[in-house]
Amino acid sequence: MIVTKFGGSSMADAGQYRKIRDIILSNPDRKVVVVSAAGKRFKNDHKITDLLYLCFAHAQYGVDCSGIFEMIRSRYQEIREELNIDLDLDAEFEALKKRIDSKSVSQDELVSRGEYFSAKLMAGFLGFDFIDSADWVRFNFDGSVDQEKTYAALKDLYRGNGAVIPGFYGLMPDGHIKTFSRGGSDITGSLAAAALDASVYENWTDVSGILMADPRIVEDPQAIPEVTYDELRELSYSGAQVLHEGSIFPVREKNIPLNIRNTNAPDEPGTMIQEHFDGDHDPNRFITGITGKKDFTIISLSKRGMSNQVGVLRKVLTVLERHGISVDYVPNGIDNVSVVMPTDALAPHLYAVLSEIKKDVEPDTLDVHDQIAVVAAVGRKMAYRPGISGKIFAALGEENVNIRMINQGPDELNIIFGVDNQDFEKAIRVLYNSFVK
Fold first, then answer.
1. pTM of the full predicted structure?
2. Interior CA angle at 172 toward 166 and 176, to 5°?
3. Is residue 414 within 8 Å of 374, Cβ to Cβ?
């Protein structure tokens, strides 16, 4: 059994609904469909969730939101009418508008209605059962998901037939609706797949998988055919815009493969994500993805005999901890060490941090380097390829990209290096063109 999740762009209008129907009907194993609220139909369009947030803000300040609410209602009415779905939502919309006007609906419940109405319409269109997420997704009081109760509840509700489920929300112990953070429909889909022990969790969006590089930097980058959960974690941490970690944990815990697919190009295989892969389908490709982020600061210090002194690095990290600053990377040498962190986190505390490091560590030199970008080449196969680091740095050197920092873990799952902010895009293009194209 396959659990499928369709994002906002896939739910934007009647034409997208038809694409989803064709996808579902093309494989009888696709029995559970999790949907988002309607997204943008064109560049300057509005997402339904954004309109619902705006509606709530208006109501809280006593401003009439009838115009905004009518935009929301009309979107769903247009879809219903164009697809001839036999479903009357008018009474529910009227009841919801009265609750908005009387300020008796919470923000979480109001914004969850985008997914709710999407799922109602999709269930009617497909002829599937509708399962409300408020009837099975169970939160603890601290906002975490009670997985045991959640999984048991969905197993009780699901009858083995086709079912459509709204993403993004569940129920608190006191009976109130609670939403996940943005992207929460991905979490709902993952929870549903884990609860029902799906063979695959398909996440359908508007791109054909996870791309090997940022398309704003590299023109038409290839999709990653296969990626392990560990590689995905590295790519996400290093800056790639991939799935929310909470949407991965439930299926990873159950060892369920996750397939990222494109609703607008359903014949393309997308990206398959799982714990490990047997064999190597492309022996010439050792880099899975290239990503990075700008605006880091490096604090570097040196001290003679540091390698023979216990606790120097701990003292530096303790200073940063006192100021609530998280360190991303710690490259080091024999008598020197550097700490790399986001500039915006360090900037308000910079002078206090430097003063305390001088006092606690008494370094011989203490330097600050900012306007640094961090680039990561990620790939599980790099560990078995001699000379990869040398090839990467040679390619960058030929294009006059100056390396400011190097960091590589012993498992060689990634090679991380720092460059000047101004060389960030160039470095990513050099790596992509040298090792992927």
1. 0.85
2. 80
3. no
